[in-house]
Amino acid sequence: MSKTTSKFSLGVWSQRLLAAILLGGQVLVHLIKGKIHRRNTLEQMAAVGPDSLFIALLTAVFVGAVFTIQVAREFINFGAGNVVGGVLAIALTRELSPVLTAVILAGRVGSAFAAEIGTMRVTEQIDALLMLKTDPIDYLVIPRVIACGFMLPILTLLSLVTGMLGGLIVVTNIYNLSETAFLDSARNFLGIWDICSALIKASCFGVLIAVIGCSWGMTTTGGAKGVGQSTTTAVVTALLMIFVFNFFLSWLMFQGTGKGLG
């Protein structure tokens, strides 16, 4: 019985993932045609960006501080305390800021998208939109995709700055390292491509979160129970896709041996 259930669940999940891929293609076609509801898009931007800002920055401060605590002691023991700022900057820019900010948005925004659109699906509000000759993709999905794709890079940049601030507070107050050395190290290590890679990753993650959340909402069945299941599986799927895409994006962006520390 359990094997049948797991196979069925995996089959349903695969079908919904395929539906999400198809929805992503439809969104791309509609965007090319320029079908954008500006008012809905601005409302979703406000929900994704400013409403998520506090928790994203709070997370970034402590992530930067904890990472610095773990790294600074070892580097100081090896006589390389002057590179702590650069290592933190690289880690935050290439991985921690875009990935952790996306994880926060997947839990907060992706679940909201799935719940809102799922509720509209089971209460036949989406059918009512179709009766009014309003395309749900134009009205519901595209504003959320644009909002996540645009606001997540901004949140990522702010998280990067806040994470560096958390690291700076730790090294100057706990390890008595020079503030100037910390900032100079970060400036020497970071390149334009590192910032660009963070923005590219964040934008891709934002689109993933929005498409998966909206798709799981659009394919919801079974009343209130179905809405709850869609919300949960949408978040889990978004997290999984973030980590999978992060691997491939990192592999494409950062192949080779890199530059020396000198």
From TrEMBL:
UniProt xrefs under NCBIfam families: MlaE family lipid ABC transporter permease subunit
Name of protein: MlaE family lipid ABC transporter permease subunit
Record's subcellular location: Membrane
Organism of this sequence: Plectonema radiosum NIES-515
Membrane topology: Multi-pass membrane protein
Coiled-coil boundaries: none
Sequence intervals crossing the membrane: 12-32, 53-69, 142-171, 192-213, 233-254
Lineage: Bacteria, Bacillati, Cyanobacteriota, Cyanophyceae, Oscillatoriophycideae
Recorded family membership: Belongs to the MlaE permease family.
Superkingdom of the organism of origin: Bacteria
